[in-house]
Design brief:
The protein is an alpha/beta fold. It contains nine helices and 13 strands. The protein has a domain of 213 residues: NAD(P)-binding Rossmann-like Domain (Rossmann fold, 3-Layer(aba) Sandwich). It has a seven-stranded parallel β-sheet, sandwiched between helices. Helix 4 links the parallel strand 5 and strand 6. Helix 3 runs parallel beside helix 4, helix 5 crosses helix 9 and helix 7 packs across helix 9.
Length: 308
């Protein structure tokens, strides 16, 4: 199949492109390189089944494709808050342009949505029928509400224009090719530990997250794209729940670092708990994560050792 991956030079996008090329597909990767990097796909450039185009999804996309994976959007707080209006435009205009392309060509399209649509949840763990608890005027809202609007557009195009959609909600993901400056907790902790710097924890360390290794996510994405008669949304995440303090301690152990933990004021509107209910993914996709946190962190630490 001929497959378009928007945001394909990013952390998740590049891992997805690699999987799709390995599976024998013809892959076209587009990225404006705001947070993505050509270095992430450099090893694919010489493959005749891979093409890279520098392009912003706020502008229409040409071509004919069998499948479209829409991953285009900065996904870490420092990046999506850097220019919040651009973040909203990428989420909304990028979604419209991707859906219009799917509408014109009959392609099936998968939207990479996020657990952030649940906001600071009042339901735990989060199921797909939970509508969320999002502050629409917070600094995080450009991403949270942008992704919520993108989901709305997917289902409106599906109802009005019969576009063949798939929507996944991605929970915290880590692994090789994470950007060093993305501000996510796993990369922050690993880099601080490797450099012998203090591990900075926002709050008292009791907030929880569920961390999935990128290979598990990519497998879930591919399965969701190819499943029949199921639009989602569906949670794709690891239900193993850890406190931020537990993550910091594990990173220090695995790196053998002398770093100590420093506690800072909590970040405004930062969710206190985040854990997916993946019952629907198990039922519809036969999917569940395979990589334990300790194993995934070891692989991620080795990656960061090679790039710093």
């Amino acid at each position: 199949m001929k497959i378009l991956v928007t945001g394909g030079a990013g952390f998740i996008g590049s891992n997805l492109c690699e999987r799709l090329v390995t599976d024998g597909h013809e892959v076209v990767c587009v990225d404006n390189l705001f947070t993505g990097s050509k270095a992430n796909v450099e090893h694919l450039i010489r493959n005749p089944n891979f093409t890279f185009h520098e392009h912003d999804v706020q502008e229409p996309i040409d071509g004919r494709f069998d499948r479209i994976y829409n991953l285009a959007c900065p996904a870490s707080p420092p990046h999506y808050q850097y220019d919040p209006v651009e973040t909203v435009r990428t989420n909304v205009l990028g979604m419209i342009n991707s859906l219009e392309l799917a509408k014109r060509t009959g392609a099936r399209i998968l939207q990479a949505s996020t657990s952030e649509i649940y906001g600071d949840p009042l339901v735990h763990p989060q199921t797909e029928d939970y509508w969320g608890n999002v502050n629409p005027i917070s600094k995080r809202a450009c991403y949270d509400e942008g992704k919520r609007c993108a989901e709305t557009l997917c289902f409106d195009y599906h109802r009005e224009h019969k576009v063949d959609i798939r929507v996944i909600r991605i929970f915290n993901t880590y692994g090789p090719r994470m950007a060093q400056n993305d501000g996510r907790v796993v990369s922050n902790f690993i880099l601080q530990a490797l450099r012998g710097e203090p591990i900075t924890v926002y709050g008292d360390g009791s907030f929880t997250r569920s961390f999935q290794y990128v290979d598990d996510l990519v497998e879930g994405m591919v399965r969701m794209m190819e499943v029949e008669e199921f639009t989602g949304p569906v949670n794709i995440g690891n239900p193993g729940e850890f406190t931020i303090k537990e993550l910091a301690d594990l990173v220090i152990e695995l790196t053998g670092s002398s770093s100590e933990i420093t506690y800072l004021d909590p970040v405004s509107d930062d969710p206190k708990q985040r854990q997916p209910d993946i019952s629907l993914a198990k039922e519809k996709l036969g999917w569940e994560p395979k990589v334990p946190l300790r194993e995934g962190l070891k692989k991620t630490i080795e990656y960061f050792k090679s790039v710093i």
